[in-house]
Amino acid sequence: MAKIASRDILHKSDIGGVQVNLADGAHVETAWDDIMAAATWHKPGARIEGLLVEKMAPRGAPS
Fold first, then answer.
1. Within a domain: residue 59?
2. pLDDT tens-digit readout, 6-57
3. How far apart are CA 25 and CA 31, in angstroms?
């Protein structure tokens, strides 16, 4: 999972700032490009600290 890191964007998924099911580094790179394009379009003045990349828990795993 990749999520934009920005205090200026509160509802990250609403602007396309979150992507899931990233299988490898190439998918993460594409996600970065897509997320940055979405953030620039929806919140042009937002300060971007980076991209948070985390491994997703398997479906059905306890939370």
1. no
2. 999 999 999 999 999 999 999 999 999 999 999 999 999 999 999 999 988 7
3. 10
